[in-house]
Structures are given as C-alpha cells and as structure tokens.
Design a protein that fits this description.
591 residues, alpha/beta, eight-stranded mixed sheet, five-stranded mixed sheet, 27 strands, globular
Length: 591
C-alpha cells in the first residue's frame, strides 16, 4: 500500500495520523487508527549533500577563497527585521512538536481537490518562500508560529490579510545577508543585508492569474522617506535618497522592508500589501527539503569562480549547488544580473513543477519538513505573521492556476549616465506600459474569462457617439504624484489632441490613488471622447445625476496611477514587444 493509499484510507485525515518515530526523528503515517505510534520505515527527504570545503564567493556567487569551518564572520549591524538563523534540521524530537501531537482529535476536512491545490500553490508559486505552508492548515499553528519572524511596517502595507474585492500584491525579498552556517563565503562580506532578489507577486482581483515581476537590484531609482519602528517602540524617519541602486532600499541607513515596499510603489504605482523576506539559507534548506530541483542547461557549465559544474541537459540540484545555481551569473547569457534573474525565474518555475509531483504530495514527512523549513526561512509583516494567517492568504491565492502565472522582468536600458554602464534605468516607454497593465489588473496570460470581462468593459466605454475634440470642455486637477501634472496634461490635450477648452486647475484638494473623470449625463459624448484620448478605464468615469448648464466643464482629477500625458492608464491590450516572459507551467533551459 503506497503513502497516498495509507493517508486516505477510510477518509482519515493525514494530519491525524502523523506521529513521531523515536528511532528516526521523523514524522510518519500511523499504520492503524487506534492511536498507537508507528515505528515503520521513514520517508526519505531526498539525497544528502556531503560536507565539503565551502566556496567563498563575492556578491555574484564567485569564489574568492575557501573556508573549512564556515565561521569567522565579524559582527555587524542587523537590518531591521532580519532574523538570526535557527536550526533547520527538521522536526524537533519532542512529543507535541510535530504533526502527531493530537492523536484523538481530527481537524475539519477540506475537500480533497482544494487541499491538494493549496499544497500545490503554497509549495510552488512562491517556491522557496511559501513552499508547504498549507500543512499548517491542519496542524501545528503554534509550532510554525514559533518559527516566524515579523516586522511592524506601519502604513507601508495592508493591515488585512487580503481584501476580497481587490488584487493582492506581495513583495518577495531575497537578501544577501550572510547568516547561517556555510554562508560566510557568499555575498558582500560587509553587507548588512540588502534587497538582492526582488519579486512583486501580483494576483488578480478575480484570482484567475498572477504576474511575478522581477525588479533588478541594480536599477537606479529614488527611495522615498520611510518611517521605521525602533527596538524601543519609537519611530524614526529615514530620509529618502535620489538616484541610487534599488538594493539599498533595504538595510542601508537602517531601512526595513517597509522602505523597500514604499520604493516599489514609487516605481510601479502598485502598493504592496505584504512582504516576505528570506536569506541565502532558504534556497539551500528548501531545495533539499523538496528532494532536489530539476534544472536544464542549454550548454554545459563548469564555472571556475562559482564551482558550479553541471552537464548540458537536465540535472537535479539542492543545497549548496542550488544556491550556487541561482547566484551565478558569469555562465549564462551576457553574464549580467538580468540574465541571472532569468535563471532564478526558471528555478522557481521548476520548484513549482517539482511540488506538483506525487513524490512530494504523498509524503507527509517531506511536506512537514518543507513547511518547517519554509517558516524558519521567513520574515513577514505583522499582518500575516502567524501560521493561520499565512494559510488563510495561501488558501485565497491557491485559486490561481499554475498555467496562468507569468514571470516577467521590469523593462530597463543601460544607464546613459555611465560611460561603461554597470547599472540600469527604467525603459522610457515599455516600463510604464507594463506597470499600467498591472495597475489595471490586465493578465499577461490568456485567461478567457478575464478577456471576456475586459472586452465587455471596453465595449461599454466606447458604446455611443463621441464629441469632437473642439467640443470637449474639461477642468484638470492634479491629485497624483507628478509635479505639474495638470499643466502637462492641459498642454498635451491642447497641442496634441485639439482639446482647446481644457483648463489647469492646479492641485486637487487631496491626493487620490485612481484618476477620475466626473461628468454630467448630457456630457457623456465628451466623456467618451476624453476617455479614448487618455486611455481611461471604465471605472474612472463617474457619471453625475444632473445635467450640466452653460459652460460647465467636466472635472478630470489625476491620481497616483497617472504616469504622464499620453500614457494610457488602462495599460496596453498586449504586453509590450521584446519583454522577456516565462510561464510557471513550462520548463526552459538556461542559456
């Protein structure tokens, strides 16, 4: 009888059958339903990697020397919210610390399909971050709670776990902090932990699709002022800086993950609801816990710096090899950080597919170890800082089908201010187009239900006649973030669109998130004309109840989603050309 048959026998919940085997230290399925512990053969958690001399690598994963014992790193300042590493060697050898702590009670069962889908999503979509967390949905909330580290980010995020009627944005941060045994040779020796790998995971309002947006660490940007909670409970405002690398939005000058969240919002116009942060150990521990991750290479790699040695074709990697794979850049593409981002996306996609395999789903021991390792690797904001809240979030997001998860990288160009560019800046056109698509919640994948809804919205907007540009009368207020936005819009409307009856009304009474166009019933043709010119979504149009009189103008109030005259707020109908994409459901080979 296989593990799945044993776990599902007589519809018994596997959570009620996990018990500690004192001989192996692993949690195993009870082979009868009497409550007696089983001492059967433990499930394997995958091949072990032997101890070996550990490579000393620079910030890109390249070797600088060797360190036998993995110790000797000098003390340094901690990033606000970064954790000290705890042991992650699997379940604790105590009664009541594992899935079998309650032998006489059953948690209420969810339908099989739903439970399996939750496992797939939490184990896959965010791979090394959320892998296995839904195991806590039926046991061990307190155990997993003890693993989590939390940070109070104040108003930078959402106080709720999620809002039912809105998209969900989760910022995944991988730091270059060198905590954990064997990690002293990776990254920058003096680093306090910067935002090295960054993915904004945007889940659509209708939960049909998701976009994982990678943000390059070397992107030159502005970091806004941010308020950071101090150890004594007080607050400190960290002044913003201009024209610096994105990665210093964390750690530098005492910035916490809330500062990185505010920087992402500044760049994209998308406000992250929550953050999840991990360090080097997460890749090592979780890739090992899942039994290894399959990767594919278009050519053999024998990197003298990172000591990554893999043949052409498929390999299965874990632990040190997995970390070397996602940190190395000199063996792929143009040897840039952008090429390394592609490799990282392929690794995460492979983790998703590995978690979908029966080898993982039918192994309670492996699932428990994944959940335990994942929560030990995580630092999160307080709003999702318990096992129960994380499972609640994961259950909601599990509605996304893996085939509708798209990986994409922020469109950038070489920094023109540098004679020999080593940093990048936003692409002047394609970046805003992509951000606009995400703000408007437009899928990057072919989701039939969403395409139909979008078409219906557009048909409703365009239905009916449009006024001539010369007949459109509008007052423009600036409630967004672009200085002089109202005047710029009026100038564009008059010179480029022929709307001569447009007036700059300066700043709005208050800042707003979404651009709005207020119009009277007898101005509907004008509203349709202006919406078409500016690319306004149907949700931006606010129809009044009484007709306009005389020379009364419509009122256009620019919001935080306004990125400039001529930039559609709705976002383009399709992804801009030449933007690299990858799908979580498809295997690709690193080149």
């Amino acid at each position: 009888m296989d593990a799945q048959s044993r776990g599902r026998a007589d519809e018994i919940d596997p959570a009620d059958q996990w018990v500690l085997n004192p001989h192996t230290g692993d949690y195993e399925l009870r082979l009868n339903h009497s409550g007696a512990d089983s001492a059967g053969t433990s499930q394997s958690s995958g091949p072990r990697i032997p101890n070996r001399r550990r490579p000393v690598r620079d910030g890109d994963g390249e070797r600088r020397g060797t360190d036998r014992d993995g110790h000797g790193s000098a003390p340094r300042r901690e990033v606000p919210g970064q954790r000290s590493r705890r042991s992650a060697n699997g379940p604790r050898g105590q009664e009541g610390s594992g899935p079998g702590e309650s032998t006489n009670r059953r948690s209420r069962k969810a339908p099989k399909a739903r439970r399996k889908k939750v496992l797939l999503w939490t184990g896959g979509t965010m791979a090394f971050v959320l892998v296995g967390l839904s195991v806590g949905g039926y046991a061990l909330y307190q155990h997993f709670n003890g693993n989590l580290n939390t940070v109070d980010i104040g108003s930078a995020g959402n106080k709720n776990v999620f809002d039912n009627d809105a998209p969900v944005n989760i910022l995944i941060i991988g730091t270059d902090k060198r905590t954990g045994k064997g990690n002293e040779g990776y990254g920058d020796k003096g680093s306090v932990g910067h935002a090295d790998t960054n993915i904004l995971f945007h889940v659509s309002k209708d939960r049909t699709n998701a976009t994982a947006l990678s943000i390059p660490r070397d992107l030159i940007t502005n970091i806004p002022d941010c308020t950071v909670k101090q150890p004594d409970g007080s607050e400190k405002v960290i002044p913003g800086t201009q024209n610096v690398r994105f990665n210093v939005s964390l750690g530098q000058d005492g910035r916490d993950p809330g500062c990185t969240m505010r920087t992402v919002e500044e760049i994209t116009g998308l406000k992250p609801d929550h953050f999840m942060m991990v360090d080097f150990n997460a890749v090592k521990e979780l890739s090992t816990a899942v039994g290894g991750v399959k990767v594919c290479l278009a050519h053999p790699v024998k990197d003298k710096d990172s000591h990554l040695d893999l043949p052409e074709g498929e390999s299965k990697i874990q632990g040190e090899d997995a970390l070397a794979f996602v940190r190395t850049r000199h063996s792929f593409g143009n040897k840039s950080d952008l090429d390394r981002i592609k490799v990282q996306q392929q690794f995460i996609g492979s983790m998703i597919r590995q978690m979908q395999s029966d080898d993982t789903l039918t192994s309670p021991t492996k699932l428990y170890k994944l959940a335990d390792a994942a929560t030990k690797a995580l630092t999160v904001d307080k709003a999702i800082g318990t096992g129960k809240k994380l499972v609640s979030l994961a259950t909601e997001l599990s509605k996304v089908d893996t085939k509708n998860i798209t990986f994409v990288t922020v469109p950038v160009i070489d920094n023109p201010a540098e004679p020999k560019p080593i940093t990048v800046v936003l692409h002047p056109e394609k970046a805003d187009q992509l951000f606009a698509m995400m703000r408007e919640d437009t899928s990057l994948t072919e989701v039939k239900s969403q395409k139909k809804a979008a078409k219906s919205k557009q048909d409703a907007l365009l239905k009916g006649s449009k006024a001539a540009a010369a007949d459109v009368r509008v007052d423009v207020f600036n409630g967004g973030k672009i200085a002089g936005g109202a005047q710029k819009t009026v100038t564009w409307l008059q010179t480029e669109q022929g709307v001569l009856k447009s007036t700059n009304k300066a700043n709005a009474p208050a800042k707003i998130d979404k651009t709005t166009l207020e119009y009277a019933p007898n101005q509907a043709d004008q509203a349709r004309a202006l919406a078409a010119m500016m690319g306004l979504p149907g949700s931006a149009l606010k129809k009044g109840t009484t007709d306009a009189e005389g020379l009364q103008a419509m009122v256009l109030t620019l919001g935080a989603d306004f990125k400039g005259p001529g930039v559609p707020i709705t976002g383009p109908a399709k992804v801009p050309t030449d933007i690299q994409q990858a799908n979580a459901d498809k295997a690709e080979c690193a080149k």
